[in-house]
Amino acid sequence: xxxxxxxxxxxxxxxxxxxxxxxxxxxxxxxxxxxxxxxxxxxxxxxxxxxxxxxxxxxxxxxxxxxxxxxxxxxxxxxxxxxxxxxxxxxxx
Length: 93
Known about the structure:
Blueprint: E1 10-11, E2 20-22, E3 33-35, E4 41-43, H1 44-47, H2 54-63, H3 65-70, E5 81-84, E6 87-90
Antiparallel strand pairs: 1-2, 2-3, 3-4, 5-6
């Protein structure tokens, strides 16, 4: 993984998100790197949720319901996520 990224390489899905995603497509394909501070980097497939704090997992799940559902088996059989016909909900009616 290249480590000398600039601020221009990071983006947020939504302005009020706490998670930054790394746009590293010109260096590698299929690697999903994110960060809370643009310094400590997490690889989505290797680090979620094992190398994250419980608080980071809560934030990540809230901002990324698709990935939270995708990796639900990593957090136990009943992680509170269920698929609906309109998308993914976190324990909501």
